[in-house]
Automatic annotation (TrEMBL):
The protein's name: Glycine--tRNA ligase
Species for this entry: Spiroplasma litorale
EC number: 6.1.1.14
Gene encoding the protein: glyS
Matching Pfam families: HGTP_anticodon (PF03129), tRNA-synt_2b (PF00587)
Family note: Belongs to the class-II aminoacyl-tRNA synthetase family.
Length: 457
């Protein structure tokens, strides 16, 4: 059954995952805040990525660079020249659109991203494309719209103080390439990963947390010799695929791998493959894997005057390394994951349950302690506090047990421990599995082992 997107959004709000930003002031368009469970899920998702791509990868290391960088970085990277979108306004209703998207929505087979501004304007006129909001055909000329957020550093707001918030985390890695490589005496091939906020003044943000102006990226820049004949592009594409399938358990029928046409490529890339997820609003880019050649390091060498070449200890040859970049947005990945695990399951004629079948390692809580009756409270609180020493645990004693199971299903808690009448007699509890709803009787002394086995299976 098709996923009801509005229902998912309402569910995530009600359960404390995602709230509208600045809601009590009427909100701020397309900004979202992560509630207690959303923050936890986001933290675990980042941790999972960091473990897989940085901490437990034999080639890679991590870094954490600034959001505001020297403006010359953006000149060198091409963002100050190329990072803008063709904007068009409806003169009648004042709605604003990206001209290429306006065309592609009407004519899905046209790749308007490759058109010049003149070609876009002509195409809109020739095909009588109407404003999707008011149906009039009265558009302004196209203006290029700079996607980078600007601000000023220091008290004087003039051009010399103008700085930009980074639109990608990648450039921080390139700018610190030499320090990173030297400090850890890294030999090629090696990768540098980073997780952090990026900002883009998107013209058409939307689809919930899919496209926002403030978001987090998880990027890996993998450096290798131009003489290295191993197919690092496919290597990282396979790693991304493995991460999605085995770590996040995303259903592989829900995404496709699509290579960009030559005329679709970004200014820095000579090959890009996107992993596109079937979101409820349509298929959209989830993860991009780009071959950036030696574009960025060469540009930074040229603009900074620093020698960024690598002296190959084996061949004594000097060269600027090539780069493969897998790049994904934290929130976009979280949205794909949530769409994947959101189920409404019919239990019997009168009962359904809403369930988030999150992987065990990502669920905000691993385990909930539920006393069957109030009189088991102090014993149960004691058990809960002991579990907290090793696991992400929660406690709930309000409402009937059925309701409490549903509450935990709704937030994705994989295990519920019920303390019942027999617990104090046989020193055992019942542990219920979220997905199968099967129950095991487990001795209290074995609970930790039971949970560790589940986590590691
Ligand atoms: N460093 C390369 C780069 O930034 P990109 O395709 O522009 O490439 C990479 O972005 C990933 O970042 C995307 O695949 C997407 O997951 C995420 N992303 C980009 N723009 C976003 C936005 N406005 N909101 C949320 N996520 C975004």
């Amino acid at each position: 059954m098709a996923l009801d997107f509005e229902k998912l959004i309402a569910h995530l709000k009600a359960q404390g995952f995602i709230f509208q930003g600045s809601e009590i002031y009427g909100g701020l368009a397309n900004s979202w805040d992560y509630g207690p469970l959303g923050a936890e899920l986001k933290y675990k998702l980042k941790n999972q990525w960091w473990n897989f791509f940085v901490r437990r990868n034999k080639y890679n290391i991590g870094i954490d660079t600034s959001i505001i960088l020297n403006t010359n970085v953006w000149k060198a990277s091409g963002h100050l020249g190329n990072f803008n979108d063709p904007l068009i306004d409806c003169k009648n209703c004042k709605s604003r659109f990206r001209a290429d998207k306006l065309i592609e929505e009407k004519f899905p087979n046209v790749n308007a991203g490759t058109f010049s501004n003149e070609e876009l304007e002509n195409y809109i006129k020739k095909n009588n494309i109407k404003c999707p909001k008011c149906n009039e055909i009265t558009f302004t000329n196209i203006r290029q719209f700079d996607l980078m957020f600007k601000t000023f550093q220091g008290p004087i707001e003039d051009d010399t103080a103008k700085v930009y918030l980074r639109p990608e985390t990648a450039q921080g890695i390139f700018v610190q390439y030499k320090n990173t490589q030297r400090s850890l005496r890294k030999k090629l091939p090696f990768g540098v990963g980073q997780i952090g906020k990026s900002f883009r003044n998107e013209i058409t943000p939307g689809n919930f947390i899919f496209r926002t102006r403030e978001f987090e990226q998880m990027e890996l820049e993998f450096f290798f010799s131009p003489n290295d004949k191993y197919n690092w592009f496919d290597h990282w594409l396979n790693e991304v695929n493995e991460f999605l399938m085995n770590e996040l358990k995303i259903n592989k029928n829900n995404y496709v791998i699509r290579e960009h046409d030559k005329d679709e490529l970004s200014h820095y890339s000579n090959k890009t493959v996107d992993i596109e997820y079937n979101f409820p609003f349509g298929r959209g880019e989830l993860w991009g894997i780009a071959h950036r050649s030696n574009f960025d390091l060469s540009q930074h060498q040229k603009f900074s005057g620093e020698d960024l070449s690598y002296l190959d200890p084996e061949t004594n040859e000097k060269y600027i390394p090539n780069v493969i970049e897998p790049s994904v947005g934290v929130e976009r990945l979280m949205l794909a994951l949530l769409c994947d695990v959101f189920y409404e399951e019919k239990i019997n004629e009168n009962d359904t349950r809403t369930i988030l079948k999150l992987p065990i390692k990502l669920a905000p809580f691993l385990v909930a302690v539920l006393p069957l009756q109030k009189k088991q409270s102090s014993f149960s609180i004691n058990l809960f506090e002991n579990l907290l020493k090793n696991f992400d645990a929660t406690y709930d004693e309000t409402g009937n047990i059925g309701k409490r199971y549903r509450r935990q299903d709704a937030i994705g808690t994989p295990f519920c421990i019920t303390v019942d009448f027999d617990t104090e007699l046989d020193n055992s509890v019942t542990i219920r599995d979220r997905d199968t709803m099967n129950q095991d009787r487990v001795a209290i002394k074995d609970i930790n082992l039971y949970l560790y086995n589940k986590i590691n299976n």
